[in-house]
Amino acid sequence: MAVNLEKEREFREMVSVENKALRINLNENIYGTFAEIGAGQETVRNFFRARNPSGTIAKTLSAYDKDFSDAIYGVGENKRYVTEARLKSMLAYETGLIEERISRAKHPNKLFFSYANTVATIDFAKKYKGHGWLGIRFQTKPKEEYSEIIIHVQFHESNAAKQQISLGILGVNLIYGAFYHHDDPVAILNSLYDHLNSHKIEIDMVNFTGPAFKEVDNRLMSLHLVKTGKTDAIMFAPDGNNVLAADLLYKKNILTLRGSFRPVTKVNLSMFQKSLELFKQENKVDEERILGIFEITLFNLRNEGEIDEKDFLDRADLLCSLGQTVMISNFQEYYKVVEYFSQFTRERMGLTMGVNTLIEVFKEDYYTHLSGGILEAFGKLFFKSLKIYLHPQKDPETGEIITSENLEVEQRTKELYSFFRDNGRVVDITDYDPDVLDINSRKVYDLIVNGKPGWEEALAEDTVKLIKENNLFQKKTKA
Q: Which InterPro entries does the record associate with it (predicted)?
């Protein structure tokens, strides 16, 4: 398998952008339209430059003027143009025109497609870096229902001209991947960065749909983006579909619980619910705009070596079944989570933690890479009156209940800890359920994987049912 992957990588490196466009142009059956808004016609330009563009390009359109765009694709919600909804409207409209205007009787073997993007590049003042939506609707067989790939990108280059060039390359990679790698969506994701790198452009959301991807779980595609460094974090909704963080987090009050959730236990749910009740009471927290997030880091997923995709999906299935929004990130330090959220909202934030986690947060060793050390990290962590909601812990040997008042942090950070605690930034969850303090998720997991009884009382009833019905967290049998 490794050899095949290496050959695939070498093959992709040999295929230039020009040759990708040429290969598509020379395929007499691939035929479609290009609709590009906001950054010129950078993708289709590559196909015009290659030989035989007339064999591929049915039409190219740049409805740059907003009124003209509205006349074609309809008026978007809140008059916004760089949105997923606008992209999907463009794709549906353009493929509909192809079907309407091109005779299937005359072209029985044609594989129709529509490529579109709607983009805002960096502004003159460089206040907004630029972002955009790209997508393709395409067929892998004549007359087949359309499959679709939708991606969102963030631009990191410092001027619009460079961003336009990167957009054009990415568009060619997307079209080429759709037609020549549709049987391997991971290969599509990897090939999107041919002749690009994550320093130029960041893919932070992707969804595959349609008959070509009927076996694809988009949560695994999100995991791949984070695991391979294509983005720092991704989010998916309770229905399992990937969602764009910028849209989901916009103007939200955010409460986050980090954990392994292997599985999600009554103590996890109690921690979150009790902290949520406190969060709702905070000044300037609009209850109608609260978003709860269950975060799993790559470190959580790698705690026993390489990431096990089934294990990841088992955790995700349980969290989704409980109606939770899930975030996968590569943020080991909590201040990076807060920095990430603060890109999208200026509203109040809260973090739910256990005692051991808070003790770790106050260890100086985590922040030696920062010039300002732990003080710099905490300046970022306690952004906009952020508060930590601390769930107590029972000492397994003495039975003592440990709270913010009697926990022990490192000697060098005691005064710093006291400062934040005394100023109300660390809030004890006092209305806790004493029955959940004895739950040990590691022991619960071991009982489940070894088929032993006694774990059921540690989990919610619906979670127990789901684990048993779907054999979640079962050991792999050796071939």
A: Rossmann-like_a/b/a_fold
Are 166 and 134 contacting, i.e. CB atoms less than 8 angstroms apart? Answer: no
Kindly state which CATH superfamily the domain 2-216 is placed in: CinA-like (3.90.950.20)
Cα(302)–Cα(378) distance, integer angstroms: 26
CB 160 within 8 A of CB 130: yes
The upper half-sphere exposure of residue 126, i.e. CA atoms within 13 Å in the direction of its Cβ, equals 4
Name the DSSP class of 353: E
Is residue 286 left, alpha or beta, with left meaning phi > 0 and alpha meaning psi from -120 to 50?
A: beta
Distance from C-alpha of 429 to C-alpha of 272, rounded to nearest angstrom: 10
pLDDT in tens, 221-276: 999 999 999 999 999 999 888 999 999 999 999 999 999 999 999 999 999 999 99
Q: How many residues does the chain have?
A: 479
Q: Tell me, rounded to whole angstroms, the distance of Cα 227 from its chain centroid.
A: 11
- Domain ranges across the chain: 2-216, 247-436
pLDDT tens-digit readout, 385-430: 899 999 999 998 899 999 999 999 999 999 999 999 999 999 999 9
Half-sphere exposure of 94 (CA within 13 A, CB side): 30
Joined tokens for residue 14: 């040999």
CA distance 220 to 222: 5
> Based on the number of CB atoms within 10 Å of its own CB, is 405 exposed (0-12), middle (13-18) or buried (19 or more)?
exposed
* Cβ atoms 233, 328 nearer than 8 A: yes
Residue 474 has pLDDT above 90, yes or no: no
pTM: 0.90
Q: Nearest-CA neighbor of 152 among 248, 255, 13, 251?
A: 248
Beta bridge partners of 115: 34, 136
The pair of structure tokens assigned to 8 is 């695939």
* CA–CA separation, 329 and 225 (whole Å): 10
Cα 406 from Cα 401, distance rounded (Å): 9
Q: What DSSP designation does 213 have?
A: G
Distances (CA, A) of 270 to 255, 265, 386: 14, 9, 21
pLDDT tens profile 29-50: 999 999 999 888 999 999 999 9
Would you list the DSSP string of 73-108?
H-PPGGG--SSHHHHHHHHHHHHHHHHHHS-TTT-T
**Was domain 247-436 assigned CATH 3.40.50?**
yes
